[in-house]
Amino acid sequence: MRDTQRPVSGITGHRGVVEEGTVRVGDTVEAAIDAERRQDIERNHTATHVLHRALHLVLGPHAQQAGSLVAPDRLRFDFTHLQALTPEELARVGAIANGTILANNRVHDDWMDQREALASGAMALFGESTATASAW
Ligand SMILES: [Zn+2]
After folding, report:
1. Ligand 1: centre distance to CA 20 (Å)
2. How far is the CA of 106 from the centre of ligand 1 (A)?
3. What is the pTM of this model?
4. Helix runs in 1-136, H state only
5. Which CATH number fits domain 35-119: 3.30.980.10, 1.25.40.10, 1.10.150.750, 1.10.10.10?
C-alpha cells in the first residue's frame, strides 16, 4: 500500500502496486496495516498537535497551522507568524513541546462532530476533517 485517501466522506481509497498476478473488478483483496509504521505516523501526528499548542502559548493564537507533512520518520509543521522565531521563542516552544512529550500523558480519541469539538475547546489542525481535543 502506497497511500490511503478519503476522496469523499464514507469512501476510503487505497493506492498500491499489484506485485503478483492481476486484479479484476469484483475480486476480493486483503489489505494489511503495517502496525509499526502506523504507530510511528500516529506519534508524529500527535507531535503536530503538541507543537501547535506550544506555538500558540509562545506566539499567540494567530500562529495557525498552514500545512504539514507527517511521515513515519519525521514531521514538518508550517504555521503563520509575522516574523522568524527568535532563539528565545524557539527555545520556549521546544521546552513546552518536550515537556509535554516527557509528561507521557495518555492520548485518546473522542469522536464528535467538528462544531461540537470546537465548542468544547478542541484545536483543529489545517485540513483535518475532525478536531482533536487536547488532553494535557
Ligand atoms: Zn489530529
Report:
1. 36
2. 15
3. 0.72
4. 35-59, 87-103, 114-119
5. 3.30.980.10
